[in-house]
Write a structure and sequence with these properties.
The protein is mainly α. The protein contains eight helices and two strands; from the N terminus they run H-H-H-H-H-E-H-H-E-H. Helices cover 72% and strands 3% of the residues.
Length: 231
């Protein structure tokens, strides 16, 4: 909070953005020799999200309640385990739940901000990346529950069932889908995969149309207020 009781997003949002970018960089690389570090990177993102949610006690409490079992189960399971067992599915479910919560928490901070700053823009970027990450994990679940839900012109069928494909290629597919680029090198085949891809494409465009437009309007409104004060 500032002295005039304005609510301004702090630099912790930029820290979360850095953590999410590091996570996405790890995922998008070839992960055969790095997949063991994924749980650590996920843990860093979880801790960074808790830091952001800590602005209010209620949100901090919810974040901790979801984070504790997620971090605990990560000690006994890994996304690299394939096919996932019951604990693996629970781990994926908790990750999806926590990242969804983190997305909502960041959106809340953005909407409550009194003016647009570089940290507000960082928050918008965090939301966009977290949306792609949530859907990537949903794609992993879809492929694990129904093998062959995705086909690829660049990856052979035996490679599609490996954890490296599930993490890196499906995250890449999610980023391409949320931006509505659609190169066509990875194709959703099953009804579940196609439904998820359609929803992500729509959600990504709604995000850009609504939240980014709101940020621009908030920035212009703040600029007009500053001009009126000067006059």
């Amino acid at each position: 909070m500032e002295k005039n009781n304005q609510r301004v997003i702090g630099r912790q949002m930029s820290y979360l953005l850095v953590a999410v970018i590091i996570l996405m960089t790890y995922i998008l690389q070839q992960l055969e020799n790095q997949i063991a570090a994924m749980d650590i990177v996920f843990a860093i993102v979880i801790l960074a999200a808790i830091y952001v949610a800590g602005s209010e006690r209620r949100w901090l409490t919810i974040a901790i309640i979801i984070a504790i079992p997620t971090l605990a189960i990560s000690l006994f399971s890994s996304i690299s385990d394939w096919p996932p067992d019951t604990i693996g599915y629970l781990y994926l479910g908790l990750l999806i739940a926590f990242i969804t919560f983190a997305t909502i928490a960041v959106i809340r901070e953005i909407l409550l901000a009194d003016r647009v700053t570089v940290h507000t823009i960082s928050g918008a970027m965090v939301v966009y990346l977290l949306i792609a990450l949530v859907w990537a994990l949903l794609y992993v679940v879809a492929e694990s529950r129904q093998p062959g839900s995705f086909s690829s012109t660049q990856v052979s069928a035996p490679e599609i069932g490996k954890a490296s494909f599930l993490l890196s290629d499906l995250t890449y597919f999610s980023l391409i889908t949320v931006t509505s680029v659609g190169y066509g090198d990875i194709i959703p085949v099953s009804d579940t995969a196609r439904s998820l891809a359609s929803l992500e494409a729509v959600f990504g465009q709604v995000f850009l149309a609504v939240l980014v437009a709101w940020l621009v309007g908030k920035y212009l409104s703040h600029s007009e207020q500053k001009e009126s004060v000067r006059e």
